Amino acid sequence: MCSDFLIREISVENCMYIVNIAETYSLKNAKAAAQKFIRDNFLEFAESDQFMKLTFEQINELLIDDDLQLPSEIVAFQIAMKWLEFDQKRVKHAADLLSNIRFGTISAQDLVNYVQSVPRMMQDADCHKLLVDAMNYHLLPYHQNTLQSRRTRIRGGCRVLATVGGRPGLTEKSLSRDILYRDPENGWSKLTEMPAKSFNQCVAVMDGFLYVAGGEDQNDARNQAKHAVSNFCRYDPRFNTWIHLASMNHKRTHFSLSVFNGLLYAVGGRNAEGSLASLECYVPSTNQWQQKSPLEVARCCHASAVADGHVLVTGGYISNAYSRSVCAYDPARDSWQELPGLSTPRGWHCAVTLCDRMYVMGGSQVGPRGERVDVLTVECYSPATGQWSYAAPLLVGVSTAGASALHGRAYLVGGWNEGEKKYKKCIQCFNPELNEWTEDDELPEATVGVSCCTLSMPNSVTRESRASSVSSVPVSI
């Protein structure tokens, strides 16, 4: 009863007072509600008299919070400085308090303009180190993966479904450069554009960065492999910037790209010379691709996912035929081994890992009259048993679709339907707990050869799109 009353009465003027009362009398619900109110209204709260009365422990706890709602990290820095400068006795807390500011998420230019210009950041050795660390982070783009920390991670970010490139149905002869994202409240919007148009590319998300590799740079249905490219670039959703990275050793389309233990693995595919058996591994700290043990047999149009510390490669096109073959790459031993095969041969399909199991979905195979037909069957591999089982079948058959996992669900987006001979805009969502597929909302436009991933983006990005930039290096100081 008391908790309910306090929760109803929360305001900017009394929120901290309610936190203190709730703490004194162990009113957990009231305390949690008041703390959430402060997080959600922190900008307004920082202008109140109560804010200046916060103890170091209280403001420190607030600035640590990942869910603190602020327009930018510069504002968090300015609010922290405001509290420190209110009372000279607080100066001893400067380095400890400012260590909660995500300086790595502030652009190099803004670090110079808004942080370096503050005397304390230059005069206090510990505070200055925070600034230098952030400067070095921006100056060493290829080392950023190994330099990631709490101070480089966006605050209050939102995980969203994103689609990359493809060939839209309304402009069938034109490839897309667009990267779209789905805001939980406002639906699909354009996030940015890739450096170049792309189709059948592979994408991966690692250390908060989006990587885009290979694919085709021209639309030529008669000879897709001829237009395979080795391009490789990285997108940073915090700053809405691209950098061009070292190209793959081989041009590739219809291949797979997997993330494991801070490295990227590009497997198989094809180019103008034919199908590929090669495997190469990207090392971010050196910005180099390394050749690894190849597949036993060249394959393309397959799908891969990581499960139980291995890269599992499923199905695809081998020796001009759809395949059931499944093999596993062990990065620790740089070796391959055969696994039990799929029940249904397929190519141009997708694979997603959910709850330590790999789900293989979609694609096509050869029908009884030699025609290409959709595969509705979904198969699930358990590393614990080493066996395949069936999951609920797809609602709509699609090939060259995009797939990703988000919040414990698998999403299959867009693609080509053989039965209807049509591009699709449907989004199919799989719930592993219910073993059930449902139709989610749709893509803005029916698209094939599209890639899909899950990105963590700043709230400011999910509220409105920003102009993107393409460069060989990020903004430097």
UniProtKB/TrEMBL annotation:
Gene3D superfamilies: 1.25.40.420, Kelch-type beta propeller. One of its GO terms (biological process) is negative regulation of JNK cascade. The keyword Phosphoprotein does not apply. InterPro entries: BACK, Kelch-typ_b-propeller, Kelch_1. It comes from the Eukaryota. Residues 15-116 form the BACK domain. Keywords: Kelch repeat. One of its GO terms (cellular component) is nucleus. CDD domains: BACK_KLHL31_KBTBD1. Pfam families: BACK, Kelch_1, Kelch_KLHDC2_KLHL20_DRC7. This is Kelch protein 31-like. It comes from Marmota monax (Woodchuck).
